Amino acid sequence: MTRITVAKGDGIGPEIMDATLEIILAAGARIEIDEIEVGEKVYLAGNTAGIAPESWETIRRNKIFLKAPITTPQGGGYKSLNVTTRKFLGLYANVRPCMSLHPFVSTKHPVMDIVIVRENEEDLYAGIEHQQTDEVVQCLKLISRPGCEKIVRYAFEYARQQNRKKVTCFTKDNIMKQTDGLFHKVFDEIASEYPEIENEHWIIDIGAAKMADTPEAFDVIVMPNLYGDVLSDVAAQITGSVGLAGSANIGESCSMFEAIHGSAPRRAGQNIANPSGLLQGAVMMLNHIGQTDIAENVQNAWLRTLEEGIHTYDIFKEGSSKQKVGTKEFAQAVIANLGKKPSILKSVSYANNSALMLPAYVRKPAARKELAGVDVFVHWNGTNPDDLAEKVKKLSGQGIELTMITNRGIKVWPDGFNETFCTDHWRCRFKPVEGTSINKSHIIDILKNALYENIDTIKTENLYSFDGNAAYSMGQGQ
Ligand code: NAD
Predict the structure, then answer these.
(1) CB burial of residue 94 (10 Å; 0-12, 13-18, 19+)
(2) Is the dihedral of CA 263, 306, 313, 236 positive or negative?
(3) In testing the pocket of ligand 1, which one of 51, 70, 261 has its CB within 8 Å of the most ligand atoms?
(4) Would strands 310-311 and 2-7 be described as parallel, antiparallel, or unpaired?
(5) pTM (global) more than 0.85
(6) Using CA atoms, how far apart are residues 287 and 262, in angstroms rounded to an integer?
(7) Which residues, 6 or more positions from 209, have their beta carbon under 8 angstroms from its beta carbon?
(8) What residue segments make up the domains of the chain, in order of their start?
(9) Cα–Cα distance between 74 and 59 in angstroms, integer?
(10) Does residue 247 have its Cβ closer than 6 Å to ligand 1?
């Protein structure tokens, strides 16, 4: 018996959760349930996190969490509970299988069978945002080596366990050489440990286009958080319906299982939603807790039901579907098919499925880190970068010089173009002159001088080299 935490969520959540639990319990799932309340009601009662402290205790005690979608109220500073849960509980791997069920579910991609492994804790989802000037806001994109190693290794271990042949990596490292560059580099390092699995890297833009057009060219695809969020919805939708795909959020001690779609409020309370996405999440949960026999039985009954043409409205198609059913009736049809296998779709066998146990991340020895300069960001309402250069040149002390000014990353001084549009947010790069070095007190002096000169500094970023290699981006056009 495994004790799990269940949240019925908002919108269509309670209906699809009831259907899912009814099916897995009818199949003999050996689970006991603690139900908690999360989402809209909790938010609107004044809790901006959308969850009560005692509910966290339940989730942490049981470690396995089956969650229906929730509605995050717009505005009002409410934080997404999904993102918070993934990060609080260290659920670093988000696994989203997207398979077409041709010819029973209408799709332009009949042989598609891909699994998106999305990094779940960092990237732009660190949620660190600031307005710095009248015109400019920023969001910090954080990519870490442990984050990359854990997710990429998870993707290869998953491919090995599931007997999949290829792992593809999507990044935009031609532009983001440090952040996406690290993800790609780690991918290449870890891929070399799995010689039996083919590996490849695509730039995300053309990779995404290829995936939407020819998904059969891909098998497992691993990617940073934002790209994975967007592309897993695309992948699910092109199998026939976003309502068909489930998602497992895996951490070292806790895991959360859900549908990939949201709470579809317009469909709520009408007994029409497709419970398949959440059911797919529940099947992954059953595998994860070692109840592979139950998972296999449920999955085969589900495939059989779809094959019989018993379809909810989202996948119902006149001609190929046989019966349009509601959420409850779909669940009853799956229950009636327990013990049966699909006759045309491939039946599943989960004998080798179990939770993947990855080695804990071991921190690498520290590199030789040297300060190489500083970028001082300035809020300035002028328009001519030469004027700003004259002002900020005065800030650098002995041995330090202004080497460049950029605006939104593009070099505007020295030798900028008149055509370049400039905002009120400027980056001034200071470096030591040839033969000298820079230390933190130089940076403090620059900031002090800026105070005296009435220049509005909004932040600094230190420039470092690691083991002698410059570890910061050049200005565009530099
Ligand atoms: P959504 O995924 O809820 O719904 C989009 C559309 O997809 C629906 O109108 C419906 O036509 C269809 N759809 C989705 N699930 C379906 C199902 N099971 N059966 C049949 N049709 C289905 O996306 P949205 O409308 O952008 O978001 C609604 C709310 O859900 C928002 O508050 C959002 O924050 C939240 N959300 C929650 C989660 C989560 O809890 N994991 C994920 C995404 C969005």
Answers:
(1) buried
(2) positive
(3) 261
(4) unpaired
(5) yes
(6) 23
(7) none
(8) 1-92+247-347, 108-239, 369-470
(9) 26
(10) no
Q: What is the CATH number of domain 369-470?
A: 3.30.70.1570
Please tell me if the CB atom of residue 277 comes closer than 6 angstroms to any atom of ligand 1: yes
| Ligand 1 atom at minimum distance from 261 CA | 2
pLDDT digits (tens, 9 = 90+) for 37-89: 999 889 888 888 889 889 999 999 999 999 999 998 887 778 788 888 888 89
If you search the block for the tokens 């790209």, which residue do you land on? 227
pLDDT of residue 202: 98
* CB of 71 closer than 6 angstroms to any ligand 1 atom: yes
The CA distance from 38 to 34, in Å, is 13
Whether the CB-CB separation of 246 and 284 falls below 8 Å is answered with yes
CA torsion, points 88, 89, 92, 98, in degrees to nearest 10?
Answer: -110
CATH-assigned architecture of domain 108-239: 3-Layer(aba) Sandwich (3.40)
Peptide bond into 414 cis (omega under 30): yes
Q: For the domain made up of 1-92+247-347, give the CATH fold.
A: Isopropylmalate Dehydrogenase (3.40.718)
Same fold, 1-92+247-347 and 108-239: yes
Measured distance CA(77)–CA(49) in Å, rounded: 9
| Residue ranges in the chain modelled with pLDDT below 70 | none
Q: Which is the closest atom of ligand 1 to the Cα of 74?
A: 32
**Pocket lining: 242 vs ligand 1, CB cutoff 6 Å:** yes
- Ligand 1 atom closest to residue 81's alpha carbon, by position in its atom list: 40
**Distance between start and end Cα atoms, the chain:** 63
Q: Of 100, 29, 92, which is closest to residue 66 (Cα–Cα)?
A: 29
